Batch of 2 targets.
Target 1
Amino acid sequence: MASSQDNTLQAICYKRGSLRLLDQRKLPLETAYLDIRDSTDGWHAIKDMVVRGAPAIAIAAALSLAVEVSNLDPFDGSISDAVSYLIMKLDYLVSSRPTAVNLSDAATKLKEVISKASDTASEAKNIFQAFIDAAEIMLEDDVASNKAIGSYGADFLYRHADDGSKKFSVLTHCNTGSLATAGFGTALGVIRALHTQGVLKRAYCTETRPFNQGSRLTAFELVHDNIPATLIADSAAAALMKDGRVSAVVVGADRVAANGDTANKIGTYSLALIAKHHNVPFFVAAPLTSIDLSLSSGQEIVIEERSPKELLHTRGGLGEQVAASGIAVWNPAFDVTPANLISGIITEKGVITKVDTEEFDIKDFVQKTAG
Ligand code: MRU
């Protein structure tokens, strides 16, 4: 395992007044950081997928605005000017990418912090300071919740392995590791925890076309951590499960509805159908900030469609042309896996399971585990 000062896998490098984001479009061949001076830089870094992954998107957005207001001195506006300024910028940042709920969830919580601070503030900079403090806490909280997800997930898999096996091979999709979060990762955090506990036989990661988060980012993290791992083409997953080489599938989430329907990287729904067909347990690993209780089912989730260039060219649209000119393209970035295909949802408060139904009662779980 790499030493702690090694920040190869650190997507977000922050200290008060300065934010640098690892340009994930260039990984794994090049490690380059971009200086993010304000929310406009933050918005573009999210839209262009310099930073990606639901938790990392939310944290990078909040910290880009924290850097902006840290360096805004003097701000000669009033307390209510400072409040409106932050709310306007947060709404702007939320418009960068629509599917991952973590970003809008963070904006809602930060607006509550701002409004509470305005009750006691004596000047505008008190509002900005309250905002900066709250944004910085998101960084720490995310790592802590990912480590909890990892341990709950590993324990659950270990205790519920119905074939009594003591070593697991886990298939994952997209990138849900340190690069998609503030550290450790969600689904990849479960794989890390299984490896640390000595019960991981092998991790399999899909390429995750068209942006190749699996082959470029997940493979990079698994090799970095010396975790036994194999990369497969997205289209090879069915054959791998048919061979009985997968004990469980563990994926991340961008938005989980109240019934458990889950939006995640395009291709996740296919994996869930294949897992169901081959009786392979299929888990979603996600922090509670990825759950949107305002949606009763996945039908209401807005699915981002991205540039055709991502399919027509290599390197997520930045490389050479590979597809025939003139062909039409449909490039949804996410799909929705219905709750009836999901065995359990691994969160930082424990694993949500179904009781005698095809759906999850997440509202009940959140109420029971609140505080
Ligand atoms: O388009 P991306 O790379 O932002 O998509 C990322 C995913 O779908 C992840 O699985 C999800 O955001 C969870 S990241 C912990």
Note: Residues 1-5 have pLDDT under 50 and may be disordered.
Target 2
Amino acid sequence: MTVKRLTQISDISGAARTPAYDPAAHGCGIVHLGLGAFHRAHQAAMTDAALASEGGDWRITGVSLRSRSVVDALEAQNCLYTLLERDAQGVRGRVIGAIGKAIAADPRATLDALCEPATRIVTLTVTEKGYGINRETGGPDLSTPVIAHDLAHLDAPSGVLGLLAVALSARRNAGLSPFTVLCCDNLPDNGQFLKNGVTGFARHMDVGLADWIVANVAFPSSMVDRITPAASDTTRADAHALTGCSDLCAIETEPFCQWVIEDNFPQGRPAWEAGGALFVDDVAKFEHMKLRVLNGAHSMLAYTGFLSGKQYVREVMADANLAKLVRRHLRAAAKTLEPLSMIDYDIYARELEARFSNPAIAHETYQIAMDGTQKLPQRIFAPALDAIASGQDIRPFAFATAMWMRYCLGVDDTGAPYEIRDPYEAEIKAALDAQPRDGFQISKALQMRLDLFPTKLKENTDWQKLVAEILDETIEKGVRRVVTSEA
Ligand code: CS2
């Protein structure tokens, strides 16, 4: 029997919910850069709820900056796909109709979409490393190949900063209003971060353009949260069972979904409240909470869990000692936060434990371990500095740092090698090449070679000693024994 591919809402038979609106009746008003699973589980699902509730021409033109495969698959399905939500109670399916068009690795088509008069918002999920922004200067990182390429080829930019700056320039020249730029990556102060990057890039093109962007383009900050593992054959089989159709774009996620957004949209916006988004004047405290508590604990458990032979986060949480270390980290990170009237941090930490323990979500520790150099500064080092300043115990943060350094060795305790998967992999390898297997030397070498450790941490002797001692013990005794004694 041939299985029908999901292409029309009318094809769907089964328990999956279908869009409560006619997708074809709504035009596109958003361009999204970074068409991965997270976008489809989060912003696209929220936009779907907004379209169902308030309507509007707010469908999404999704751009995959590098890969063609997701776009080919989406196009074959009229951009419809199934979103599964999993927990201990079971799996629920919902077909999302919010994506109107998909574009793959095509700078010309992307620029055209960005320059459409109807485009009023550009959202982004390109991961921490995807911007090509130098964290020290805040401007474009000229050593990033795509930045160098785009500055030399302003007619065909392919990176995020180049695309946004060139499109804004074209809109300005055509007398069109600028779009609002909404960063949805796990970075602190992500609106200002992207604004600095785009204006820095524009300054290389034309100082007048940079000034115009500063004065006219809104870059609201936002905090996003939804644990979204990579889709698997089980995802596709369950989507089939719930829709009666084969769906090569199905993705899965947890029931929890949070989006806190600075309410600064001069060109209007969808009614994302309908999907549960919270609009506030200042996102900073929410961002700190999410980056330090959820993401910080995630990074700690990813390195420690991966090196302890745990493939999934749920397996880490099922191990009494590892779970104890996760709880310790959640509490320590929460202690570095300023109070937030709407949130009880104890409850937040307990909910996170439950989310990490979700038995139905197969979230790989190795996936979270990726790109540590891009994640540790905001997740581990920033709270560590606050902990030092307030006299709080810094051991949980030093432990997380030592586990990342241990991970940087690229072999587990049995000697089995793995890819480090980090944009600074070459630098990490060069720093550790020919280093004796000694915690003090390894910690020193990484800190000298990589530009990511805050000076105040580098100069803090207690911190240095703690990190090096934990790392040394881990190398000598193995990760599992250290986990047992640490817990
Ligand atoms: C994770 C995040 O991969 C990672 O680094 O910590 O993707 C995390 O799952 C999300 O931020 C949850 O909202």
Note: The chain has two domains: 9-280, 284-486.
